[in-house]
Design goal:
Elements (H helix, E strand, L loop, with lengths): L2 H10 L16 H14 L12 H8 L2 H15 L9 H14 L12 H7 L2 H7 L5 H8 L8 H20 L10
Helix pairs in contact: 4-5, 6-9
Protein name: Type III secretion protein
Organism: Pseudomonas sp. WC2401
Length: about 180
Amino acid sequence: MNDTDLWLLWWACAWRHAHPHWPTLVATPAELRSLHANASSRFGITPCLPCPPAASLRQLALAPLAQHDAWLQRIGHICRPARPTALDATERLWCQRLGKALRPQGWLEPGDDVLQLLRAWVEPAVWQRLRLRFAPARIQTLEQKPLLALSAAKLQTLWQTVLWHTRLAVEGSNHAVTSHP
């Protein structure tokens, strides 16, 4: 299956890739066809045609759950550089440099979840599906707060840069890493 097929499958059945704390739906393939509308309703997904599968959205949707945690950890350090982090020195330095360029320190209130930045970046139809990748209690708390009103261009830069950087780290890169700030 190619990436586009995987994207379409994820779009149609995002609940199949849900965080383990979401309710599970067990059914045969024949039952799944009739269960689709019920499952979408149960998980708060409005049925609609998929948006074009941008590379960054495919990467978000199809990545393992652990990868989401790594992205959010980087985003958290970019937006809140003074907070402790488990990132190594090279990653912290990279995050600090991006933070200097974007100046995101005021984007989140002290108690805000960095996941709000993902919610603010993606389209509502994408969010309805992508939110299933995270614990339901976390999503319930997050969705009680209003959507952040941030610059779409800055959010695009933040997320695409973090996704690109992570992809390079996984694939191996040939760019030089410097040790000066």
